[in-house]
Fold these 3 entries.
Entry 1:
Amino acid sequence: MIQGLETRVAPNSLDAEVAVLGAVLLDNDTLAVLTDVTPEMFYRESHRRIWQAMKNIESRGGDNPIDLVTLSEELRTRGQLDEIGGATYLIGLSESVPTAVYAEYYARILKEKHALRQLIHNSGRIMQMAYESELPVDEIQDRAQQLIYDVTSQETVEADSADGEQAVGLFMEWLEGNKGQPFATGLKDVDEMLGGGLYPESLIVLGAPPRVGKSTFALNVADRIAESYKDEYDALYFAMEMSADEITSRRVAARARVDFQRLRAYKQDPKNNPLTEQDWTRISKALETIRQVPLTIYDRPGMSYNYIASKARAHMRKRGKKLSLVVVDYLQIMDFSAFSKAGSNESSEIGKTANAFKRLARELQCPIMVVSSLSRDVEKRPNHRPMLSDLRASGDIEYAAKEIFFLYRDEIYNPDTDQQGIAEFIIGKQRNGPVGVVKLQFHGAQMRFNSLATGN
C-alpha cells in the first residue's frame, strides 16, 4: 500500500453534485438530458438517494412534477427524508443554482470524479491480485487490463445517440465517405453476395463440420484482407489449435500453390528433397509477401475473451492503426471462466462470449470472425449441410451474430460425388442481405479456397 493513500479522500466534487440536483429542481427537463447519470456517480450517499428518488418520480410518467413537495414525499415514503437532511436540505438544493443551463457541464465533472474513483477501486483489486499471486501472471495482466478498460471505455450519451439532424449527417457521411466500407474477401462471388465483403462492427460466425476446412477458409480470408488493406489496417488471428509456424506454413502453401504435404516431407527429410526448383521460386516469393502483410498471429491454447480483447486493444495502441479483421479460431475451446458462474453451463457461457465479441466488434470498428464447431446432429442427418440450429448455443449465437456462414463439401460424405474439389459457402444469416449458397474451389493439398470463376 502506498504510504498515506488509505487516509486520502476519494476524488469528488460536492459542488458539482449539488449543482446537478439543484438544476433538476429548477427545470425537470434536465433529467431527459442527463440520461447517463446514475446514482453511483454521486460521492455523497444522500445525493445518491435524492437522485434515485428523482428518477423514481420520472419513471412514473404522467404530469408528476419533481419539486420540493413530491421529492420530500418520495423520500419520506422510503424512510430516507431525515437521512438526507430533511426538507431543509432540499430547499437549499433548489436555491443553490441560479440556472439549469450548465447542468451538462456539472454532470461531466461528476462523471469524471466517478471515473477516478473507479480507477482507484479497480487499481486496488489489481494490487490485491498481484499480492496474492494465486493466478498466473498473464491472467492477472489480462484481468488488470479489463478492469482498467471497464472504466476508460464508459461512453457518454453524446457518443451513442443521435437526434434527427445528427442522424442525417451520419447517413450522408456513410453514403459518401469511407466509413462503413466493407473489406473484400478476395472471393468474387462471395463478396457479391455479401454486398462487397465483411463489414466493420460485425460479428461473423463461421461454422462447419470437421475436415471441411473452416480454419483454412478463415486463414485465407484473413491473409487476403490483411494484404489488400495493409496501408491503413492490420489484421489479427487468434489460434488455439495451431502454432504460428504451422499457420505460416499453411499460408506459404496457399500463396505458393505448393502441396502442403510436400512441405512437411521436406521438413522431415530435407535430403530427399520433394520440392522442385519452381516450387522454391514460388515459396521465396510467398515468403517475401508474407513478410510485408500485417497479419499478426497469436497462438495459445484456451485463450479467454479478456485476453483476446486486451491484445487487440494493445495492438491498436502500439501500431496506431485500425484493424481490418480479427479471427478467433475457435469458439468452443476458449477459456470461459470469465463468464462462468455457479449453475451456468457451456451453452450459456458460449452465448455470453458471443455477445461480448459482438460488443468488441463495435468498439474496435472492425469485423470479428469467430470460427465455431457444430453439434453432432449434422452428422446424423441424411443431408449433412449445416443449418443454424447446428450451432452449439445456437440461439444466443444467432442473436449476437450479424452474419452466420457455413461450409460444406459433399466429397467428404459422398466419395463418388461429381462435386470433387467443390465447397459450398452457405450464408445462413445476413442481417442486411440475402441468404444463399456460393460454390468455391477447394484445393485441400494447397490449403486454399478460390472463386470458381477466376481461380483466385
Note: The beta strands are 203-207, 233-239, 295-299, 322-329, 368-372, 403-408, 422-430, 436-443, 448-451.
Entry 2:
Amino acid sequence: MAHRDTTIRGRRLAATQTTENQQNLFTFADGNETVRISSLGFLHYANVSLGTPSLSFLVALDTGSDLFWVPCDCTSCTKYLSTNSGARLNLNIYSPKASSTSKSIPCNTSSGAHSACPYQVEYLSNNTSSSGVLVKDVLHLITEQNPSEVVDAPITLGCGMVQTGSFLDGAAPNGLFGLGMANSSVPSILSSLRIAANSFSMCFGDDGIGRIRFGDKGSPKQDKTPFNINQLHPTYNISVAGITVETNRSNIEFNAIFDSGTSFTYLNDPAYTLLSESFDLHAQDRRLPSDPAIPFEYCYNISAAQTSIMLPNVNLTMKGGSLYPVLDPIVVVSGENDVRYCLGIVRSPDINIIGQNFMTGYNIIFDRENLVLGWEKSNCYNVQGSSTVPFKPPNNTVVPPATAAEPRAITPEATRNTRNGSPNSEAPQPSIVLSSRFSVVACTLFILFVHLIAIF
C-alpha cells in the first residue's frame, strides 16, 4: 500500500516554473500576490487600485461570479474591521463623485428618459446580495515585464450601495472581484479591449500565498481538460471521468465547477459517498464520530504524540485522460479535548464544486480562449514574475492581512464571533480552532464558501 507520508506541520512541494511563452502578462498595480485570509471567509484576497486618484480595495477573488463590485456610497456595508485589541481598521469606500475618471452608465427607461443603470446580484448563501448602480472607471494594472509598465484599463464595475447577508458577516467586506466567463467580468473586458489574452491564472500556495496574472495561458508542461460551456450562463465547469483512491478506481462521471470563491470541495452523490468511503477504507487512523459543530463527516483521531499522518493518495481523472492529484485533501480540526483530521469535502444537495482546498499546490490556468482548464504543480514562488516579498497593502486605510486575520486561529461558530479582522465583532473568543496541515480553515463558514456563485 503506497501512502503519502504527510507531515502535519509542513510539506515540500515540487515546484515547477511557468514560462512566459512570449505572453504579455498583466496583474494589479499593487502586485500579483494574493493572500488567503481565514477570518474573512477563508477566501483569497488581493489589493486592487481603482479610480483617480487611485483608491485601494482588499477584494475577494471569485471565479464563480462575474461582476466586480466595491462598497460605494453605501447605506448597508462593512466600513471597518475590529481587532481583538480593539483597534478599528477603516475600509475604503468608493464614490463616483470622488474619482475624476468615473462615468455613469445610463439606462433607457420605459418613458425614454436616461437614468443610472441599476444592478442586483443575489448569491446562493441565504439573504446574501449586492445591489447598486453600474459605473465605469479605470482599474490600475501593470505589466510583468522588466521594467513594468502602468496600464489603466477602463472597466465596468458595480457601485455597491447595499450589501446583505454574508457580505456583512465576514466575507468580501471590501468588495468582490468576479472572474467568471460572462462579458461583464474583468478578464472578458481586458480581452475585448485587447489589453490581455483571454486567459488568466491563479496560483494557490500551501502557505496561503497565491498569485494572479491576466493573459497567462500557462506552459507546455501543464495538464488540461476542456470546459463544458452553458451558453446561457457559462462557468468554469469541467468533467471528471473517474476517482482513484490508492488502487481503488471508479469510472464514475460527473461535472463540477472550479470555483475560487469556495473554500472546501462540495460533491453530491454518488461521487461524495464513493470518494469518502474509499478514503475511509485506506485511512490508517481511527475514525471519530461525527461532530455537529463541523461540516465534515469523515474525521480521524490524531494522538498527542503524532507528528505525521499517512494519507491515501487521491486522484481525479479528468475528461481527456489527464490526472489531477489532490495534494491537500484534509483539514485539521483542533478542539478542547482532541485533534482530528477530516477529509475536506462536504455533501452537496445539488451542484458539484471543486473548491480551493483541492486547488492547493497548483497554478490553475483559466484559458477562456481555448476553453480549457490547465494545471501545473507550483509553490507560487517559482512562477516567473512572482515576487517573494511579503504582501503589503498600499495605504493605511486598507487592512493588512497580518492584522485582518490571525493565521492560526479561527472559530467554527457563526461569523459574528470575535477573531482578528472580524467586522465590528465583540463576541467571546472562539473555543475551537481549525487548520489544515499548512493553513487555517474556517469551518462553519462552509455555507458561505459555496455560495459566492451568483444567481442572475
Note: The longest helix spans residues 271-282.
Entry 3:
Amino acid sequence: MIERRRQAAGDAGKRSWRRPFKRTHRGIVFRLQPPEILLLGFILFSLAGTLLLKLPIATTGPISWLDALFTSTSAVTVTGLAVVDTGSDLTLFGQAVVATWIQIGGLGFMTFAALTVMMLGGRLPMTHNSVVRESLNQPSLNAIRGLVGTVVTYALIAESIGTVLLGLHWIPEHGWRTGLWESVFHTISAFNNAGFSTHSNSLMDDVGSPLVNLTISALFIIGGIGFAVLGDLRRTRRFSQFTLQTRLILLTTLFLNLIAFAAITALEWHNPGTLGGLQSTGERLLAGWFQAVTPRTAGFNTIDTSAMTQPSTLITMALMFIGAGPSSTASGIKITTFVVLILAARAFLQQRDEPAVMHRRMSVATVNKAIAVALATGSMVFIVVLGLSITEPGASLEDILFETVSALGTVGLSRGLTGDLSTPGRLLIIVTMIVGRVGPLSLGYFMARESSPAIRYPQASLQIG
C-alpha cells in the first residue's frame, strides 16, 4: 500500500512538471503558466525598450546599452530608479518611450493580474471558486472580465483629470508644449506608481505647491489601492457594504499614511536638510505628507531623501517593504499580507487557533501564504544586500539596504546610490526590479494550485522562540 502511494506521488510530481513547449503536426506549441508568461513579457519589453532607447532620436547624447536596459526595465516595472536624467538625457521621443512602458507595466500588470485570477478560478475546484471571487470582491467570474475594462476606464479618467490639474500649474510656468507634456508624463508616472520625473530633482522645486503635491499623491494612492477595490467602489459607495478586503485595504492605507505623516513630520521638522529648511509651516506640513505617502510605492520626492534622519529612513524602508494594495500598480508584500501577519501574531498572543477581524476569520492557508510572501521577500532583500555589499564596497550599508528595498518594492526612491552603481550592481538591481514586480503574484499563483499529498506524515512539535 505504501509503495503504491509513493508511486502515485511520483506520478503526480511528473504530471505537475511539463515542458514549456511541445511539438505537434502544426508546429511548436508553447505551454507556459501565467507567471511564466508575465516574467517573459517583462523581459521582452525590457529588451524592446532598450533597443528603442538606443536609437539616436531617443537621447540627447550616446548612452550605454546597460543604461538603456536599466532605464527600460525601471520603466516597465514601474520602479523609477534612474541612471540617466530623464529630462535632459532623453529627447521627447525617449521620454515618450518611458511613459509608454510605464503605462504598459502599470495597467498591463493590473489587467494581467485579473486574467491570471480568471485562469485560477478555472483551475481551482468548484468548491474554491467562491473563495477566488470573494478575494477579488467580485460576485462572479463573469464580473472579473468586465473589471478589466473598468481598470482601463478608471485609469483614463484619473489620468485625464490629473493632466488638467497639473497643467494648471505647469502650463503657465513652462508654456503649452512643455507644460502639457510634463503634466501628461507626471500623471502617467504617478497613477502607475512609477516615480519617473522629467525634473532632475524630482518634485523638489514644487515642494510648496499644494496643487502639485495633492494631485500627484492622490494619483498614486488611487493607483495603489488595487483593482479589486476599484471594482468594489464601482458597485457601492457605502462602507458597510464593502467586502472585507476592501475595508481592510482602505482602513490600513489611511492608518499607515496618517501614522507615517505624523512620525516623519515630527522627526524631520527641525532637520535643516529636509523640512527644517523650508520657510513656512504650510510647506513643512505639505512636504511631510508627501514624503509619508510616496514610499508605498510612488518614488517621487519633494525633499532630499539622502538628508533624512535615520529614524525617518527606517520608517521609509518599512513602508516600501509593505507596499500598497494587491493587484495594483504598486508592489511590496502588499497591505493584505501585512494585515494578515499582524492578525496572526495577535491571535497567537491571545491563544486563538485562527486570526479574526470584522467578524471574519482567516484560514490557515491564508496565514501560510502571507508568511511565505513575507519570508520570500525578506530573503530576497538579504541576498541582494549581500550581493551589493560585494559589488559596491565603498557604499554604506544604509544606502545599500535602502536601494535594495526600493528596487524590490519597485518604489524608485534612492539616497543617491543608483547613479554610482557598478556594472554588476546595476545588473543585480535590474534583476531585483523584475523579481519585485513579478514575484508576489507568481508565488500566490503557485501556492493556490493545491495538491493533495499521497502520504500523510506523523505530526511533530518543535520549540519556537
Note: The chain has one domain: 28-294+305-448.
